[in-house]
Amino acid sequence: MLRNNDAVATVAVSDLKTARMFYEGKLGLQPLDGEEPGVITYATGRSTLFIYESQHAGTNKATAATWVVGDGIAGIVKDLKANGVAFERYDFPDTTMEGDVHVTGAIKAAWFKDPDGNIHAVVNG
């Protein structure tokens, strides 16, 4: 029923001003026109990232949004880190680290958190 419809990543934040500094300043996202009070919508590739203020910000302990970045993952992680993004390190079985990138077989992924602790990932696809 939903296979032909786009999905939107939805992330709760405690403060839109702080979120805007992170998502625009550190990740380089640009907001879409026509914002509504309490929300910011970003276009990212063919997807959309919907940021909204909530008292429940940062309570999700799993990955909220993932960007599929292809073989350029190491360069993107390097650029994000140079922009002030701190990367997480997780102890997964059969996984090695290449800098901040977790490598499990052909899969390469790196995780980072926004100011509210929401977890995001970049993956090679």
TrEMBL record:
It comes from the Bacteria. Gene3D superfamilies: 2,3-Dihydroxybiphenyl 1,2-Dioxygenase, domain 1. This is Glyoxalase-like domain-containing protein. Residues 4-125 form the VOC domain. InterPro entries: Glyas_Bleomycin-R_OHBP_Dase (IPR029068), Glyas_Fos-R_dOase_dom (IPR004360), VOC_core (IPR037523). It comes from Neomesorhizobium albiziae. SUPFAM superfamilies: Glyoxalase/Bleomycin resistance protein/Dihydroxybiphenyl dioxygenase.
